[in-house]
Amino acid sequence: MANGMGVGIIGVGRTARAAAMGCRAAGLRLVAVAEVDTAKGEAFAAEWGMMLHASYTQLLARDDVSVVFVLLPHFLHHPAGLASLRAGKHVFMEKPLAGTVEECNDLIDAARAAGVRLMVGHHYHFTAPTQAARRILQSGELGRPIMAMDVWHKPFFGEYRPPWFLDASKGGGAWPMNAPHMIDRLMWCTGRRVESVLAQVGSPIFGLSATDSGVAHLRFNDGFSATICHGAYKDGVPRLETEFICTEAMLRVTASEVAIGRAGEYKPVPLEKTNAYLDQVAAFARALESDEVETPISGEYGREVVAVLQATEESARRGCEVRVAELLPVGTQLERGA
Ligand SMILES: NC(=O)c1ccc[n+]([C@@H]2O[C@H](COP(=O)([O-])OP(=O)(O)OC[C@H]3O[C@@H](n4cnc5c(N)ncnc54)[C@H](O)[C@@H]3O)[C@@H](O)[C@H]2O)c1
Fold first, then answer.
1. What confidence tens digit (pLDDT) does each residue in 95-105 have?
2. Are 49 and 15 in contact (CB under 8 A)?
């Protein structure tokens, strides 16, 4: 079924080339792109042999598009996602699924009503280090995970930053951009879900409405706790590293390495070669071919990540610990992290 299905890409965001490559590799047919920046849209359409539309409404009216990739600024995930699902298109939504739990509910309900698939782009499920970390942690060979420290620092202006990224009302900021990855990695690797959050999030470095840094203590089920610490600095040194302390040993995970810590030293674990974004699109394409309604990263999973993110922002505002279940529709919290 997926073979030859027509794809529309909405927004030539930073993951658009990887999405297009993934679609080609998975046997999906690149048909149309919607982009408001004409020069960017024309260049992308020419490179991938697609039709350019100035608005996603035009793209969604096409009968030859049955799958859309929404690669837009965060504040547009909800309207564009909803319009796509209501038009009967299968949707791949870049992370985070939407800005609030309520918006996520709308998207999940719309997918169900239209009988189409919804997948969220938490691509760390497909990176070799995260996959190895999940396998090791869930095998029990290190005992039970007790705690973790997840640290991610990068320059705020190190890469192209569009105006929406500087505006909190548009879902901008380093925290909404990167904390979903940190929350997702911990949930997915441990198979646990976050129960409560105590956080400090803000913009002490740049004084913008959009955040530049945050630290959050996440209390998971099964006695596991983690701190996520993210600084998008003016000047500094990049770092991406998670250290897990388990009852029998330790585990360190970076962007390129996984190592088990025993007897005072870390020893690297051999990793398979993967191409995370391509593998992610291939998994989406396989879900389109199957009878399973769920995609590998469901709307419900994406909503749980958004609930934790929202809990960090609520906690920072209220100055107290926030329970994630308070934010989710009654009875919908996941049994496990994944
Ligand atoms: N998984 C990852 O590693 C990763 C990396 C980067 C970005 N992202 C995600 O990708 C999404 C986009 O982020 P980005 O940094 O690429 O943003 P961006 O601003 O660089 O790209 C968004 C694009 O959408 C276009 N656009 C804006 N409004 C539009 C509209 N109404 N119709 C059509 N096009 C429109 C913009 O002109 C721009 O080209 C976000 O959800 C972000 O979190 C994920």
1. 999 999 999 99
2. no
